[in-house]
Amino acid sequence: MIDYGLLSSIILAVGLPTLLARQWRITGPDGPVGFMDIAVGPAFAGLAAGRLTTLALDDPQSIGSLSDLLIIRSGVEFWPAVLVAVAVLAVGARRAGVRPLGRVAEVTPLSMVGYAAYEAACLFRDGCYGPESAVGLRAPGLSTTMLPVGVLMGIAVVVGAVVVHRMQGSPAGSMSVMLCGALVVAVVRSVGSFWLPHIGTGLTRQHVSSIFVAAALIVGLAVCVGRSGQEPDSTS
Length: 236
Hints:
Elements: H1 4-20, E1 26-28, E2 31-33, H2 35-58, H3 66-69, H4 78-95, H5 100-120, E3 132-137, H6 149-166, H7 173-192, H8 205-230
Antiparallel strand pairs: 1-2
């Protein structure tokens, strides 16, 4: 049976940055390259890594089962997936003769738009959940309206993507661009997760990981900015 909601979400998550790449161009050795040309491999690698991490943490015995591996809906660890995707993207850039960090920085805002599209596509999955609100959406099977947290998260990440894109080519450098993009996503996930439904009263593993990643990125960004401020001015 085809999961049309998930399929629609994936199409939006890939299609929107692909279209946007016509304006937010990705530099190649012989001119601009398409988002799909360089992002599909890293995306699948990250998805596989994130799914395997979930199985390893929740049910190690099911790792050898292809059917269990393919049930994406049952969980994909987000940050391990991102880390592997970035690593594969960087390796591909080096093989293509492109500076890896520069390539990752160029792809960062486009990837943020893709993630934002997936979050907002909760409209096409099981509904957009959140706290009860007089103004909001009614998820299937419920009688109360809820604030669509997924849509709001998507909007926040898109705004962040625009800011990160405008940082391209600035004195901030590629590393700062990449760290800022990841920080936007980590903060949005950390804040938004407080209002998403989950089992139990404590924070979920995904929520905790986003908080830790956000903290680590803040430290990394501070170090990066501090180092750039200590570099001598080449014009002096």
